[in-house]
Design brief:
The structure holds two protein chains of two kinds.
Chain A (H helix, E strand, L loop, with lengths): L8 H24 L4 E17 L2 E19 L2 E7 L4 H15 L33 H18 L3 E20 L4 E19 L2 E11 L8 H14 L9 E7 L1 H14 L2 H5 L20 E3 L22 E5 L2 E2 L6 H6 L14 E3 L6 H8 L2 E8 L9 E12 L2 E14 H6 L1 E4 L9 E2 L3 E9 L2
Parallel strand pairs in A: 7-12, 11-16
Antiparallel strand pairs in A: 1-2, 1-4, 2-3, 4-5, 5-6, 7-17, 8-9, 8-11, 9-10, 12-13, 13-14, 14-17, 15-17
Helix pairs in contact in A: 1-2, 3-4
Chain B lengths: L1 H12 L6 H11 L6 E17 L2 E19 L2 E7 L4 H12 L14 E2 L17 H18 L3 E19 L3 E20 L2 E11 L11 H17 L6 E8 L6 H8 L4 H5 L20 E4 L20 E6 L2 E2 L6 H7 L7 E2 L8 E2 L3 E4 L6 H6 L3 E13 L5 E13 L2 E6 L2 E6 H4 L3 E4 L4 E2 L4 E5 L2 E9 L2 E9 L4
Helix pairs in contact in B: 2-3, 4-5
Chain lengths: 452, 480
């Protein structure tokens, strides 16, 4: 088992030109079949993933994906099609399927490619490509080290559900009939561990993970395992709580989800449909004045960094919230036209959205909270973006006098997102960098906790 | 089955000029001495979807995905590789990669091929071809018009129609050769209503393993439009939901998501082999009240969760999970069945050729009980009556599960009174069913809208149950 899966530096690069050629053939074929405009994306990816359990390999998976997607326009009508087959016949058939659909969709004045003046013309090197020459044996050793560390973290760790090491790389080219050609190439490596702790009352599980563009930025497997083990053991002896209204502190992993709900509420697709509780709030005070939210799409090695969005529109730094006031919506071309605005380069989502941290770390936030609930896990769907109503299953810790008193489970947290945002007391200094949304813990003034 | 096998050979192997000898070559490479089991999973999925919004046919899309997944199992170890190119060199390369899990040595060769057995629960049709594109967009427009006609407060109507045609061929190291041709369709309606500045939404959907034409039978599609509007208007009147633990009456049908989350996942074989489920080692224990008998049944004709054979080529069956409150069985794929020394139950499923099979649910439901549904509501002094749900989730290790009500009412003095906003319900799987004190006579399956996620893999499933009462369950509202 010594094959090297991370491809050497040049091999995917060499592929870039061939993917672009396929994209150009797609655009040419679309024109030939009568499309007035078209866009194509062609992507390839490879990966290796190894999981171990009880000191042995559990699964060893080799991944290899490719995909070709085309959107055609017949005037203001559109059709889309995709295939994993890059052969010339498949390419023609895929374009034909999209064109056939475009004959049945409606004339929609907002439909079309992105405005040519907004397309990216500069392609800075964002330092996203760091292949890892990882053999299956090496991956297994790393995973075993994580598993062993989880077991050593606490005598009550009875098992690990899995310890996993993964490494993958991808290349995607996007072209449109305005003449835009862009490519994105990147690597993503990860280490994760799920630990199970047991005592007389039952079992608890929890996990930890590390993810990065470059393997040298991953946390050590011993660290990932230890944190998974400590977190699982920390949940043993969980109790329930009585129903109450209390301050609630979301750890950074949980905070990311709430911020995701905020971004959903200011995204163009929900706004033009009037399906957002933050309708017509541009410029308004949505958060308290200490809250600052910025987007930095060009951050080197950022997990969500990109020079252009899914329509080729140039990305740039944005101030999304300043002093608690909403500064911009997040728009793709279609939503922008529906709202009489310009695309903000958010087709496909945000790129490194960061909440500015306050100066209190997690322990200081506990002190500030005094008594209340720390949420370390959420279950079920998030909020209702039309109304802002929010209700989720939760687990975490009850806090008394600024100290974690005992773990809690089988409770819910509920409120309205509008009120939660307005009552956001603090953003912690304990920033979590592992995603497209980067935030510290969030302390909410008051939520309803339901339990026994 | 022969018909499916012919279609599968024609669709999957013929274009690459592959025949049984090519499969044998792959197994020659896969079957190392320490390999206990191996399989090849060829698949071609054609799917489409159409979306209406603002009274316009806004989008349509078509996709074809195909490939072959190769798996080798040695003891508890699994090696897996796949290729989206169905050609012999790629197949052999993937076979070599999957086999890397096993010790090296002289390979065994394959026994003679034998045709599999399987059920015939749906016709091998291609739903995409079952209506013309014009008929599909006309259907969307009629649903839209019906929703807008139903009430002037309707502000937005979203209608989605999707269908797929999935052809699979499964060859395993025992020489079994199986095929299945799986149609799947779905129609979904979501409406948003506005009244005096307040906005709410409602949705309804239906589907199964059949042609689109089923939606044209009677008023089925238009019923969905009216149902979505009705739910949205109910929500327009809804007050804050209560917070705390109280009696909860769940309606028949889709609220059976309770069973899927509370006990279904916890009874999947992999978690029990590994001992990571709160139900591990509890066969024969009482885990529910005497009124509860719960099955997982993949053999229902046309249902969304049904399969003529599972993704390992095993015929599906009706597996009793809980009988009169006693835990009777787990759901197994072949690997976990072998390791636990029990029979496979036809629950080995995978999202696609690019994913590993696991024990998964099919249609999970509770059989009817002795109580009149109206009597069940009348028995509650003060509680919640929940009839429609969004999704759910479970932590199979601690047993804690949630499911989110999207249409619910207060019960006061035995009567259903005011509607309340959606809220998450949370409970503990291993004991929640012990508090089921009444089970209705009105068993109903859901309308064909369920999708289950596990380890990032999505598969279509069904649920069902009669009206039932849980004496105490925590309701995650805001008014406490």
């Amino acid at each position: 088992m010594n094959e090297v899966v991370g491809l050497s530096n040049g091999s995917l690069l060499a592929d870039e030109q061939s993917l672009i050629r396929i994209g150009q053939q797609v655009l040419e074929e679309a024109r030939r079949q009568g499309a007035t405009a078209a866009e194509a994306s062609v992507s390839v990816g490879t990966g290796l993933s190894v999981s171990v359990r009880r000191g042995e390999v559990d699964t060893l998976e080799h991944e290899r994906d490719r995909s070709l997607a085309v959107v055609v326009y017949m005037g203001q009508r559109t059709g889309a099609a995709s295939s994993a087959d890059f052969s010339p016949e498949s390419l023609r058939a895929t374009v034909a399927a999209a064109c056939s659909i475009a004959r049945y969709t409606s004339e929609d004045p907002a439909r079309g490619l992105a405005d040519p003046s907004l397309l990216a013309t500069e392609f800075p090197d964002l330092d996203l490509y760091h292949p890892w020459a990882l053999s299956a044996d090496e991956a297994i050793d790393l995973a075993l080290a994580a598993e062993a560390a989880a077991r050593d973290a606490d005598p009550r760790i009875s098992d690990c559900d899995s310890a996993t090491v993964s490494s993958g790389e991808g290349l995607r080219v996007y072209l449109n009939s305005h003449g835009f050609v862009g490519s994105r190439r990147g690597t993503r490596h990860g280490l994760s561990c799920v630990a199970i702790a047991r005592d007389h009352a039952g079992m608890q599980r929890d996990y930890w993970f590390s993810v990065a563009r470059s393997a040298d930025e991953l946390e050590a497997p011993e660290e990932v395992g230890r944190r998974a083990g400590e977190r699982a053991a920390g949940r043993l002896g969980s109790r329930r709580l009585g129903t109450r209204h209390v301050p609630v502190l979301y750890t950074p992993m949980m905070a990311r989800g709430v911020i995701g709900q905020f971004l959903g509420a200011i995204s163009g697709n929900n706004l033009y449909r009037k399906s957002s509780f933050l309708l017509d709030r541009l410029g308004d005070q949505v958060f308290p004045s200490h809250v600052q939210m910025q987007e930095h799409p060009h951050r080197p090695r950022g997990l969500a960094s990109a020079a252009f969005d899914d329509e080729g529109v140039a990305t740039r730094d944005w101030t999304v919230v300043e002093d608690g006031r909403l500064q911009t919506y997040l728009l793709d071309s279609y939503a922008a036209r529906r709202l009489g605005r310009q695309s903000t380069g958010h087709a496909g989502g945000v790129h490194n959205l960061e909440l500015q941290s306050g100066d209190q770390d997690f322990n200081q936030l506990l002190q500030t909270m005094g008594s209340g609930l720390v949420v370390t896990e959420l279950m079920g769907q998030g909020g209702n973006l039309v109304t802002g109503d929010y209700s989720r299953g939760a687990a975490g810790f009850w806090v008394e006098n600024g100290e974690m008193a005992y773990p809690v489970e089988e409770i819910t947290v509920a409120g309205n997102l509008k009120d939660m945002f307005a009552g956001l007391q603090a953003v912690g200094a304990d920033r979590d960098q592992r995603g497209s949304i980067i935030t510290g813990s969030l302390l909410f003034e008051s939520m309803t906790v339901a339990g026994e | 089955m022969t018909e499916s096998l012919d279609i599968a050979r024609q669709t999957l192997l013929a274009p690459a000029g592959m025949d049984d000898a090519a499969l044998e070559q792959a197994f020659d490479r896969l079957l190392a001495p320490s390999v206990d089991a191996a399989d090849l999973y060829f698949q071609c999925t054609r799917s489409e979807s159409w979306a209406l919004e603002d009274g316009m046919i806004k989008q349509g899309s078509h996709s074809i995905d195909q490939g072959v997944g190769v798996r080798a199992i040695s003891g508890e170890k699994t090696g897996f590789a796949y290729s989206d190119d169905i050609v012999l060199p790629a197949l052999l390369e993937a076979s070599g990669a999957a086999r890397a899990i096993a010790r090296s040595g002289q390979s065994r060769s394959l026994q003679a091929w034998q045709r599999g057995r399987g059920l015939k629960l749906y016709p091998p049709l291609d739903p995409v071809e079952s209506l013309t594109d014009q008929e599909k967009v006309d259907l969307l427009r009629r649903v839209d018009a019906e929703a807008r006609r139903a009430d002037p407060r309707v502000e937005q109507v979203f209608v989605n129609l999707s269908g797929s045609h999935d052809v699979v061929l499964i060859a395993d190291g025992e020489g079994r050769l199986n095929a299945d041709v799986r149609p799947l369709v779905r129609l979904n309606v979501r409406v948003q209503v506005e009244h005096k500045g307040r906005r709410e939404s409602g949705s309804a959907g239906a589907g199964g393993r059949h042609a689109y034409s089923r939606f044209l039978d009677g008023d089925r599609a238009l019923d969905l439009a009216r149902e979505a509007v009705r739910q949205a208007l109910v929500n327009l009147e809804a007050d804050e939901a209560p917070a705390g633990t109280m009696p909860v009456v769940l309606g028949a049908g889709w609220p059976g998501i309770l069973l899927h989350e509370a006990i279904g996942h916890g009874l999947e074989g992999d978690f029990n082999r590994k001992g990571s489920s709160a139900f591990a080692g509890r066969l024969g224990d009482r885990v529910a009240s005497e009124y509860c008998t719960v099955v997982d049944d993949g053999t229902l004709a046309d249902r969304r969760g049904s399969l003529s054979l599972d993704d390992e080529g095993e015929p599906t069956q009706c597996t009793t999970l809980i009988e009169n409150g006693i835990l009777k069985g787990y759901m197994q794929d072949r690997m976990n069945a072998r390791l636990m020394g029990v029979a496979a139950t036809g629950n080995g499923r995978r999202q696609s050729y690019a994913h590993l099979p696991m024990p998964r649910m099919t249609n999970t439901y509770m059989l009817a009980g002795p109580h009149d549904p109206e009597e069940i509501v009348r028995s509650v002094d003060r509680g919640l009556y929940a009839v429609n749900f969004g999704g759910g989730q479970v932590d199979i290790t601690s047993g804690k599960f949630v499911f989110s009500a999207s249409e619910a009412y207060l019960i006061e003095n035995g009567k259903v009174t005011r509607p309340v906003k959606g809220a998450t319900l949370i409970g503990n799987g291993p004991d929640v069913l012990t508090r089921v004190s009444m089970v209705g006579t009105d068993m109903e399956l859901d309308s064909g809208i369920g999708t289950c996620g596990k380890d990032g893999q999505l598969v279509p499933v069904g649920v069902g149950q009669p009206t039932l009462k849980i004496d105490a369950l925590t309701v995650g509202g805001t008014r406490g």
